[in-house]
Amino acid sequence: MTKRILLCDDELPILRAVEFKLKKVGFSVMVAQNGEAAWAVIRESLPDLIVSDYQMPILDGLGLAKRVRENPTTQHIPFILLTGKGFELDQEELRARLGITRVLSKPFSPRELVEQATEILQGAQYNSESAAKPCGETG
Amino acid sequence: MMRQHFASLCKHLCCWGAISALVITALLLGVGTVGWQVWVGIAGVLILGMAAAQKSALYAREREATREWLEELTRHVEAVLVGNGVAEPKMVPEAPKSIKDIGEEFARRLQCVSEFVGGLTQAQTAAEIRARKATELGQRLTSVLNVLPDPVLVVNEFERVEIANDAARESLGLTNCAKDEGGSCQGNELFRELMDRIRRQRVRDAHFDWEGDYGDGRHFHFRVLVREWPLDRPETSAISGLTIVLEDTSPLANLRKRHAEFVSAVSHEMKAPLAGIRAYVELLADEDVDETTRDEFVATIESQIERLQRLIENLLNLARIEAGIMKVKKQNYSLNEILEDAARVMRPHAEQKHIDFQCELSPLYLSVVADRDLLLQAAINLLSNAIKYTPDGGRVILRSRMEEEYAVFEVEDTGVGLSPEDCQRVFERFYRVESHKNMAPGTGLGLPLTKHIVEDVHGGRIAVRSEIGRGSTFVVEIPRAVAMGGSFNRTMSVGSR
């Protein structure tokens, strides 16, 4: 079954490039340009993976991740954060607090993103219906 | 008064003695019953009585003179004392003969007293002058201390505040304790914390940073400079007290914060186009794409490179401004042509956001003497901001017109708008409207640079009118070129504002 990925970035060139690459390797891709629009798609479509930029208008990547983790129907969805920020972000804290699965720093390689997405989705499939808990969450 | 009565009584007694003797004599003569011995006796008594009466009168006069001399002397001494020794000792009234020696001695001693009192008075006057000068100096120093914007405190060995300038009283709230409680400010939480920090850090002749809250939500950031002052008692090794200066480093801390945010924003701004370039280069290398898609990818790469280039230009120009010099090359140009170039660069960005981008340029030839690249950058910066802060589906209009001696262009948008305070501050370096930070990335560089280009480089004016939720209009006025019979080249240096 084709895995569905929600891709969210306000930078249109990056959005188009990553969308192109993910589609090329066979994923089904939904796109949004801000966190609020992405959240609407996520609730409706429950994608298998979320790939989101950090700095976005209206609702940023961390706000989106928080909503995803707080909602019981979406909290299991793995989350890749793309970011142009460097020293301000503590990746360990992001994993622990918001269940961010991976963080990719811009400028990233779409090839690498595809590898990471594939790895995460295969892991999720391996865990099948166990509904893997987000990293750092207990109980 | 008593002495006068006494003298008068003596006179009367003498007179009455003589009269009584004469009466008795007459009685005896009348009777004729006494011998010559008696007459001799009576005469002797009479003579003695007369002599006694005369002597008594003399003493009375002397006493009177002495009394008057004493009274005059008393007035003189009072004059000497009250007049602070100004009365001349030689003016001491001459004493009666009977007590001349006493009078002379007294005059000598009075002269000594007078000299002593005079010396004392001079010393007192000098002391008063010194005290007045010290008071004036103290007042002057207090004024100087109060002019200082930084809080200054002087505490003694018992940690009692001896001096606190206005800034210290205001910022630490020492208004009452420094004065009313004998300098004990231990009841003041901030003062206590400060002294604790000084003790804890064993800081005596050093400095440290002190950060905290005033308790009303306001934050402070001080650099605390501490100096010992064992000046009054150099013989003791104990600490006599401390002079404490609190240097307000909040502006510096804010600047550092804004600078860090700026570096972060610049890195983000650079990473975004770099990410695009990398992604498309990789796609072109990895994927087998048709010609149309390839052209599309290459165009995207080019636009991202242009974006990066613009950012670097902005940064370089800012660095030139910071360095105090910017090379400007001015020529005659058509303002409309420069604006058309700017519109061409920004139109794709507007289209990406489905923004209705309209150009309403004047049909007149608007000639300006301009540095083309810089003025183009200013126009692009304004258009870029308008597109960034206008939601999808909004409208951005670029207009130009002639107004007396100015060629005017304006960029109007239907974006999020600015508050009156933000309108004042958007031209500050690195300033970013708080509510806009999450809306679009930015460095806080574009508008300050645009203002510099318009006002300092071209002698023009820039203004903004805006309403939150309705949009903003940035108006730029550039002086029109007077007919000069052709273009010319001019290189000038423009210092930073």
Characterize the structure shown:
The complex is a heterodimer of chains A (139) and B (497). Chain A has a single domain, classed as Rossmann fold, CATH 3.40.50.2300. Helix content of chain A is 42%, strand content 17%. The termini of chain A are far apart. The C terminus of chain A is likely disordered. Helix content of chain B is 55%, strand content 18%. In chain B, a hairpin with a 4-residue loop joins strand 1 and strand 2. In chain B, helix 10 runs antiparallel to helix 12. The C terminus of chain B is likely disordered. Chains A and B meet through helix 1 of A and helix 7 and helix 8 of B.
What secondary-structure arrangement, pairings included, does this model have?
The complex is a heterodimer of chains A (139) and B (497).
Chain A (H helix, E strand, L loop, with lengths): L3 E5 L3 H13 L3 E5 L2 H11 L3 E5 L7 H10 L8 E5 L7 H8 L3 E4 L4 H17 L13
Parallel strand pairs in A: 1-2, 1-3, 3-4, 4-5
Helix pairs in contact in A: 1-5, 2-3
Chain B lengths: L1 H30 L4 H47 L17 H48 L4 E5 L4 E4 L1 H7 L4 H4 L8 H12 L6 E7 L5 E10 L12 E8 L1 H37 L4 H33 L3 E8 H18 L3 E5 L6 E4 L1 H17 L6 E9 L2 E8 L6 H6 L20 H12 L3 E7 L3 E9 L10 E4 L4
Parallel strand pairs in B: 7-9
Antiparallel strand pairs in B: 1-2, 1-5, 3-4, 4-5, 6-8, 6-13, 9-10, 10-12, 11-12
Helix pairs in contact in B: 1-2, 7-8, 9-10, 10-12
